[in-house]
Specification:
The protein is α+β, with helices and mostly antiparallel strands. It is 50% helix and 12% strand. A hairpin with a 2-residue loop joins strand 8 and strand 9.
Length: 352
């Protein structure tokens, strides 16, 4: 966890919502100079409000889904902007009373006192492409739900298992006809139609992304793809979610951000279990898990490694261990500007 420790004459805490935002400005003596609720649809009102203080002002805001425009506004106006990590900002959620006015005051006090937990302010140039890739990820998950439903209905009728994968359109030609009931057939036809729609849209999104990579580091993209199992989509996911590897001081911080390691709760020398498993980037976690599974398919050594770990930890954790090791490799590939060497990778793990 990193905190904002710079000192400013004025600190502006904002509790941001879609339609309104509560603005609180404090000075060095902790005097509340402005405490006002204004509309988010009038940015000029916000700029007018902070105008007397902007010569030495920092604007602090919690990381909610609607922070993009505020960060871009501050960037264009040359105003210091910091983003608060939503999971770490527990101070604004405690107490008997909680409202927007009080939250904005607490945010300002956290920033002023050096206790403001920082989140990464993602550069505006890459946000649209990253968000489109995240949308593709969401559509892929929705598509898998329809495939799973067809499999469930097939088991309900105790019919023979499908011999071919349903993710290919050619393998779905006569799926509905195998069910005896006409209403069930209509149910399956609905699933098949949705699969066709999602598949077409996913392909179009992938085509658009691959054609609009202006400014992307092609050399880095190639180096990431030297890892067996990482293709265009996974490499781009890693690049756009990480954006700048140097924002992580160590490989341990990177793995923690990617949810590749578990949190641990410890007190008085005793371990009290895991804590805060959701802190980190879930898209990065998904990408590294997918890379680990695909790596196993293409590497016999990776298969044997997972089998060995499975005997001790179980298969799910064994795959997570491999994903963690690949995550460390990705960090060093990026930082050292080097390609992936599988022989060296296994030597580092003392596994042959």
């Amino acid at each position: 966890m990193r905190f904002y420790t710079n000192s400013h004459q004025y600190v502006c805490g904002i509790d941001l919502h879609t339609q309104q935002m509560y603005v609180c400005i404090l000075d060095q003596q902790d005097n509340c100079l402005i405490h006002e609720n204004i509309s988010t649809k009038r940015p000029e009102r916000f700029l007018a409000l902070i105008e007397p203080f902007r010569h030495d002002l920092v604007v602090a805001c919690e990381c909610t889904f609607s922070w993009y425009w505020l960060a871009d506004l501050c960037l264009s106006e040359g105003i210091e902007f910091i983003l608060g990590h939503a999971y770490y900002m527990g101070a604004i959620h405690g107490g008997k009373v909680k409202n927007d006015k009080l939250d904005s005051l607490k945010i300002a006090k956290l920033a002023k006192g050096g206790n403001f937990p920082l989140a990464y302010v993602y550069p505006p140039h890459w946000r649209p492409l990253r968000d489109l890739l995240r949308r593709r990820h969401h559509l892929v998950h929705l598509r898998s739900e329809f495939t799973a439903h067809i499999q469930i209905v097939n088991h309900q009728f105790n019919l023979p298992s499908f011999t071919k994968k349903l993710d290919r359109a050619n393998n779905r030609m006569d799926v509905a006809e195998r069910f005896p009931d006409h209403t069930t057939q209509r149910n399956i036809i609905a699933d098949l139609h949705m699969l066709d729609v999602f598949e077409a849209e996913i392909k179009q999104i992938e085509h658009y992304i691959l054609r609009n990579l202006k400014g992307v580091d092609r050399r880095l993209l190639f180096r990431l793809k030297t890892v067996e199992g990482i293709g265009d989509i996974l490499a781009l996911t890693l690049m756009l979610e990480i954006q700048d590897i140097r924002r992580f001081d160590s490989v341990q911080q990177f793995c923690s951000y990617g949810r590749l390691v578990k949190g641990q709760k410890e007190s008085a020398g005793k371990t009290a279990g895991k804590c805060n498993p959701k802190i980190g980037n879930r898209y990065l976690k998904w990408a590294m898990s997918e890379a680990a599974i695909l790596f196993m398919r293409r590497s016999d050594t990776a298969k044997r490694y997972v089998e060995k770990q499975s005997r001790k930890h179980g298969k799910a954790k064994a795959i997570s261990i491999l994903a963690h090791k690949l995550g460390r490799a990705v960090y060093h590939i990026w930082l050292r500007e080097d390609s992936f060497d599988e022989d060296f990778f296994w030597r580092q793990l003392n596994f042959k």
